[in-house]
Amino acid sequence: MNIPITITVTNQKISSDMRQLVSDTVNVYKCHFNFDSSWDSFSKTAVFRQEDSDIYEVILDDSNNCILPWESIQEEGVVYIGVYGVNETQRYPTIWTKPIKVALGCKDGEPHTPPTPDVYE
Q: Has residue 2 got a pLDDT over 80?
């Protein structure tokens, strides 16, 4: 099962159709990025951060999709999504999305989920 999140990117502006996520949800939220033509020459990487926590980067697949890293929504609070593109001579980042609320989800007590592969894996 996947819950879709649609993210629209126009030049360096970004917006999401999702207003609330549930903390500790693992491998369920699938992000699809819609880019305007200014992004055509770039390889794209999605960036996720929860408030002032660590940043998680995921390279988008050929269809501009990725699974939201569960580590970025472990806690109640807010999460931000951004994206950047690179080509041979340029780096093209967006601003962050408006805050997306992360509501507290129930937990089973034991951490047992492997980490999301980073961009080097």
A: yes
Dihedral through CA 20, CA 23, CA 29, CA 33, nearest 10?
60
Q: Using one digit for the tens of pLDDT, what is the confidence trace for 48-82?
A: 999 888 999 999 999 999 999 999 999 999 999 99
pTM: 0.87
Residue 7, token pair as written in the block: 């993210």
Which residue carries 């305007």 as its tokens? Answer: 36
Strands (E), 38-99: 43-50, 55-59, 65-67, 77-86, 91-93
Across-strand partners of 81? 48
- What does the buried/exposed string (b/e) look like for 92-116 if buried means 16 or more CB atoms within 10 Å of the residue's CB? bebeebeebebeeeeeeeeeeeeeb
What residues contact residue 53 under an 8 Å CB cut-off, 6+ apart? 72, 75
What pLDDT was estimated at residue 107? 72
